[in-house]
Structure formats: C-alpha cells, structure tokens
Amino acid sequence: MMDLNNSHAKPVRVLFVCLGNICRSPSAEGVFRKLVHEANLAAAFEIDSAGTASYHIGEPADYRAETAAAERGIDISAHRARQVHRKDFDTYDWIIAMDKSNLENLRRMCPQEQQHKLKLIMSFASRHTLDEVPDPYYGDERDFKYMLDLLQDACKGLLDWLVSMHNLQAEAHR
Ligand code: 4NP
After folding, report:
1. Which of 3, 146, 156, 174 has its CA 20 to 30 A from that of 98?
2. Catalytic residue of the set 24, 33, 48, 88
C-alpha cells in the first residue's frame, strides 16, 4: 500500500543493479544519493547497489567511474562491489536495472510477488530517449561522462517519481 505520509514511515529502499557493480550501478547510487541529499530527503531513503555477476566482489568502483563522478562533486570512493542476493528482493522496495540484460537476469532470480519492484532506470529519463545505460567498461573517459549524463537525467526522474509515489516530504532545515 502507498504511504500517505512517509515522514514517520520506514525508509524507501532502492537498489541499483548492473553487471559488475563497479561502473554503472555505483555511479547511479552516487548520483541518486546526491540528489536525495540536495532535496533534504536523506532520512527517507536507504540506497545501495549490486551486480548480477560475481567477477568484482569486494573491489572499489572502476577508477574511471570514480574520476568522472568526482568531477561532478560525487564521491563514490567508499564503494565496494557486491553481488545481488535473493534476500534483496525482500529487502528493497525498488530494484533499478541499468540495461535489459540486467533486468532479464533479475527477472529470472526474482520471486513472482516481487517482480513489480524491477524497473529499467532509463524509463525515468526525460531528456534522453535511450532505454538502456550502455556498459562503459570497454570504453574510454567520454563513455563514462556520457554514462553520468544519462544517470543524472534518469535519477532525477526516478526521485520525482518516488517522491510522488511514496508522498515523501523534505526534512525542515534546522
Ligand atoms: P558495470 O560494468 O556492469 O557497469 O559495473 C562492467 C564491469 C565489469 C565487467 C563488465 C561490465 N566485466 O566484464 O568484468
């Protein structure tokens, strides 16, 4: 059921998912955290990211993602990669995939009653018409900048949607 007023309700839990959890999803997590912080909504959210693959478990974000994020005032240096667990489908309210392949992998793992939690991140973008965030891993620094352009657009739309969906209200400044 939708919350009528989330100011005293449990946080909205959002998990961003890509393949390796070292490029796109930690970047999406960082972009979304910054938007949430700027909107004075930090207390209303729990945010994390994970990968469908196990290759990079325990590693920090790719240095190119970390550098591109830092250039936009986003610090993802504390990130450590983890894999999606079955428990995540219970824990998180929304599980946001970077591309259709991630979404398909999640759909296969996810219990029927939790399938409604799975979304494609670019479905929330308003300035870009792409439906996936391209994997920048084999690209160069321009690909990482473009990835952030896409994520900043989509995360803004996602936050607006969640604020409306859960009737979230910003904390007053003290
Ligand atoms: P990500 O990018 O899914 O955005 O973290 C990738 C990272 C690593 C690999 C592929 C994509 N890899 O093949 O190791």
Report:
1. 3
2. 24
Other C-beta atoms within 10 Å of 99: how many? 21
Q: CA–CA separation, 114 vs 101, rounded Å?
A: 18
The protein residue with its alpha carbon nearest to ligand 1, atom 7, reads 20
Distance 53 CA to ligand 1 centre (A): 8
Catalytic residue among 48, 88, 99, 135: 135
- pLDDT per residue, tens digit, the chain (174 aa), is 444 445 557 999 999 999 999 999 999 999 999 999 999 999 999 999 999 999 999 999 999 999 999 999 999 999 999 999 999 999 999 999 999 999 999 999 999 999 999 999 999 999 999 999 999 999 999 999 999 999 999 999 999 999 999 999 998 754
